Amino acid sequence: MTARVRIELRPQGTRIEVEPGTALHDVLFAHGVEFPCGGRGRCKGCRVRVVEGRLPVTAAEERMLSQEEIRSGWRLSCQCRAETDLTLELAQWEASILADETRFAFTPRDGTGVAVDLGTTTIVAQLLDLQNADVLGVRTALNPQARFGADIMSRISFALEGGGYEKLTAAVRLQVGRMISELLEGGGRNADPRDITIVGNTVMHHLFCGLDVEPLSRFPFESPATGAREFVPSDLGWPFSPRTPVRFLPCIGSFVGSDVLAGVWATGIRDSAETVALVDLGTNGEVVVAGRGRMVCSSTAAGPAFEGARISMGMRAATGAVSEVRIVGGRPECSVIGRVAPRGICGSGLVDAVAAWLDLGLVLPSGRLADGRTRLELCPPVTVSQADIRELQLAKGAIAAGLRMLLETVGASPPDLKQIYLAGAFGNYVNTASAVRIGLIPFPVEKIKPVGNSALRGAKMALSGGGSGWETLAAGMEHISLHADPKFQDTYVDEMNFPEA
């Protein structure tokens, strides 16, 4: 019998055993290590440091890591296999995922229900008592598909490879089913849920429901299969009663999914007499504007910078991430999640840092670093490069341009906008003053209102007596394809620069 390889993960102290030759890519994702490029050795998001043992240096690591990093023991875990016992220090752990505890109007009925927000990066599920809408349990997890790519286009690319589609669908169905089982066990419920409602973006909708994503891979990026889908648990390999319907709510358009539809329902913007907007800040930023008797929406390819991906020392909002930066005595001062030594920077920290450096004159409105620098030190060892600033400019420019063009579409101007709801984890945690300073949301701070996980809240409302009318709501929203508008590119370029002081 072949001896198994023992791996200790620090700082958690977790110990696991694997077969010799096991790819670290296959075992570390469950322990908080992310693979933004899908394990292709094209980024540094999956770094681990070898404390004890040996991992030979690969060509990809020589290309992506500095000699100092290699000498210090850092490796790209997507390129490594466990051949001998190892002690590894993880660069990321304890991912923070946003749930929702907001009270809302409901229609009482018997039994329990489960609401699921199926995000590109994270999944959150809640068990509800349908008599009073009380939350009986919460489960959160990283989306297992993230092993194959951080953003939706990477996910689509993997799906179109041989066997990729089946892997993505099976992985996410298994994870969601496991989370629901854990909720029922943890809540002490013997009976199966009466209803299960799922929301997510259009790509997550297609991959979960077993629908072809190929139309979303090419111009005009439109799919004919955006409607609601209903299953019985056995369709998904779940061990629940066949009388339990599993509903994935309808999408609005090509890259505007039922998560945004649920957010529209939860915030009530469809009923607003004034011009208002909902902005969901994530890897695929979605914008909705309601006003002048119309409700228009679109998606913008913001990229994963808000999630910390494609940033040289970027990471999710987890222990060790710089999450806040403020100016004290003319210098940036950092707050680190978990009050530990800094390991990287998450999206909210990056927005804060750039806002601070703009005020200090270290970053110019053009986005260039002052005095010809290529990198700025934040709090050792965390630094931000010129390329990182550009990634943030691309992301914020896309959101600001989308908001501006949708306002024009309904015949409104920026001063007409009375309220902006910021949805999602990043929207909930980002400093709104910093978001205004960098031009991400170019409106007065008093008009901006973070609303947390409005997608999950909307899914819960669907369980608690608000389950009808979703198709009608989706049909009443106009999906605008910004990439098809010749004005978008010029507007995008205009919004790339940072505001003057």
How do the strands and helices of this protein lay out in sequence?
Layout: E1 5-10, E2 14-18, E3 22-23, H1 24-28, E4 47-52, H2 59-64, H3 67-71, E5 74-76, E6 81-82, E7 86-90, E8 112-118, E9 122-129, E10 134-142, H4 152-159, H5 164-186, E11 195-200, H6 202-209, E12 229-231, E13 246-248, H7 258-267, E14 276-280, E15 285-291, E16 294-300, E17 321-328, E18 331-336, E19 344-345, H8 347-360, E20 375-379, E21 382-385, H9 386-409, E22 419-423, H10 424-429, H11 432-437, E23 448-452, H12 454-463, H13 470-475, E24 478-479, H14 486-496
Parallel strand pairs: 1-7, 8-11, 11-13, 14-22, 16-24, 17-19, 22-23
Antiparallel strand pairs: 1-2, 3-6, 4-5, 4-7, 8-9, 9-10, 12-13, 14-15, 15-16, 17-18, 20-21
Helix pairs in contact: 4-5, 7-12, 9-14
Q: Summarize this, please?
A:
Helix content is 28%, strand content 24%.
What can you tell me about this protein's structure?
The protein has 14 helices and 24 strands. It is α/β, with parallel strands linked by helices. It folds into 4 domains: 5-90, Roll (Ubiquitin-like (UB roll)), CATH 3.10.20; 112-266, Domain of unknown function (DUF4445) (Nucleotidyltransferase, domain 5); 269-303 and 392-456 and 466-470 and 481-496, Nucleotidyltransferase, domain 5 (2-Layer Sandwich); 307-373, no CATH class. The strands form 6 sheets. A 6-stranded mixed sheet has the order 10-9-8-11-13-12, sandwiched between helices. A hairpin with a 2-residue loop joins strand 20 (375-379) and strand 21. Helix 7 crosses helix 12. The protein is globular, with a radius of gyration of 23 Å.
